[in-house]
Write a structure and sequence with these properties.
Length: about 200
Amino acid sequence: MNRKIIEFFGLSHVGKTYKLLKLEAQGKNYYKYTDTTKLKRLFYFIVWLLKHPYRTAYLFYKMNLNAMKGSGLRLILMRNSFLAGVLAKSEILNKRTGTIYTEDLGLQSLFAIFHKKTTEKEVIKVINMLPIADKVMIIEADMKLIKERFKKGRYPYEECGEEIAKAVMEVCFINYPLFKKVIEESLKVNKNETI
């Protein structure tokens, strides 16, 4: 099958969606989460689960083992729902042809899985269980700019309360350099490449 999946990876507010929307305006195939109904995502999550029961169990175990202290039920449900959506998306994209650009695929879920400071060994184990795109583009912005954007925008998980959302982002900032290092050393990566 003639298919190439390119995942944009990076912290929130670095401009992944902005860059992908620009590509879409140029006629490129940008797959968005909203391109598929909830029912279809549920179906494809079940397909992934049946194909990869051990990987699925491991990923959900790791995610829930790495929950931030004081995480409420809402945050737990959001994180688990996000991971289920990532796994479903992988199955959906595997049925497509051509070059497909996306975000929130396997590697981006590292931010949802690790809500505690982690180690290189643990990140490698999880990456080996995740669905990985054919190519990864790391999108970055100056940390000062990212923090300014957060002041003007919204935090991931802010529905769980501002304190939890900010704590989650702090862990993301701590873990990001490690995620980036492991990804660059183990996968085919392009950083801020012009497409």
